[in-house]
DNA sequence: AACAACCTCAACCGCATCAGA
DNA sequence: GTCTGATGCGGTTGAGGTTGT
């Protein structure tokens, strides 16, 4: 049907990965490491773009990936983090070992967004404003930390610190307190 | 049993940022 | 300082599965 249409887009395979493709990709990454995805795709003989290979590895083939069965604790943490950070899926995923940003994003869109919408309807407009204010507050706080970090970091390396470390949610009490503000 | 409507999630796309030449 | 390719991120799509009628 489309054989005579020389679309640049049809250059690569698309769609679901086969077991064979997964195996080839994992083999090459074991040797080359998870970088230079274009090269990896070539070496593996996969007719896939580098992006596609990276995504496949990050979301499925990487070791220590947890799949399915998001626990109540994880769900609660996602809700809290989302309240705090918004749609920063990679940041949220970073706080949930073994979970990927894509999985969390999907879980949010299919499960949690509905829950949140229902809750918001119950809480009413005032609560919504509160949520927005919290989000703004968090964004401002983080931005401020970043700015301070950059400017201070230039002059005094002791002052420099990782923003992600600063926002370490492993201490849930901190998050609770922050959300109460 | 057949079909439609809905849901889930793997994968793609476009854009922004980073890093090296 | 600029260019270019690589990487990362979030939004979106669509195929396949499930549920309802």
Query: How does CATH name the architecture of the largest domain?
Result: Orthogonal Bundle
The number of distinct β-strands equals 0
Mean pLDDT: 71
CATH superfamily of the largest domain: Homeodomain-like
Total helix count? 9
- SS strand fraction: under 5%
Percent range of helical residues = 55-70%
Order of helices and strands: HHHHHHHHH
CATH class of the largest domain: Mainly Alpha
Low-pLDDT stretches are 1-10, 125-167
Instruction: Kindly provide the radius of gyration, computed on alpha-carbon positions and rounded to a whole number of angstroms.
Output: 21 Å
Structure, described:
- It is found in: Nucleus.
- InterPro entries: Homeodomain-like_sf (IPR009057), Myb_dom (IPR017930), Myb_TF_plants (IPR015495), SANT/Myb (IPR001005).
- Keywords: DNA-binding, Nucleus, Repeat.
- The protein is mostly helical.
- It folds into 2 domains: 14-61, Orthogonal Bundle (Arc Repressor Mutant, subunit A), CATH 1.10.10.60; 72-180, Homeodomain-like (Arc Repressor Mutant, subunit A, Orthogonal Bundle), CATH 1.10.10.60.
- Helix content is 66%, strand content 0%.
- The protein is elongated and about 55 Å long.
- It starts with 18 loop residues before the first helix and ends with a helix.
- The relative contact order is 0.08.
- The model is unreliable at 1-10 and 125-167 (pLDDT under 50).
- It binds a DNA duplex (21 and 21 nucleotides) through residues 14-17, 35-38, 49-52, 54-56, 58-60, 87-90, 101-103, 105-107, 109-111.
């Amino acid at each position: 049907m489309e054989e005579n249409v020389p679309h640049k887009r049809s250059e690569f395979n698309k769609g679901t990965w086969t077991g064979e493709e997964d195996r080839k990709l994992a083999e090459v990454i074991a040797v080359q490491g998870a970088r230079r995805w274009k090269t990896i795709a070539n070496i593996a003989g996969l007719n896939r773009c580098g992006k596609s290979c990276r995504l496949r590895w990050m979301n499925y083939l990487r070791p220590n990936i947890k799949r399915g069965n998001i626990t109540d604790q994880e769900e609660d943490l996602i809700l809290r983090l989302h309240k705090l950070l918004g749609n920063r899926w990679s940041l949220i995923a970073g706080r949930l070992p073994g979970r990927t940003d894509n999985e969390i994003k999907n879980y949010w869109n299919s499960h949690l967004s509905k829950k949140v919408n229902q809750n918001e309807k119950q809480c009413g407009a005032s609560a919504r404003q509160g949520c927005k204010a919290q989000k703004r507050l968090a964004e401002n706080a983080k931005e401020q930390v970043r700015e301070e970090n950059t400017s201070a970091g230039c002059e005094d390396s002791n002052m420099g610190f990782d923003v992600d470390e600063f926002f370490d949610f492993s201490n849930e009490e901190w998050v609770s307190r922050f959300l109460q503000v």
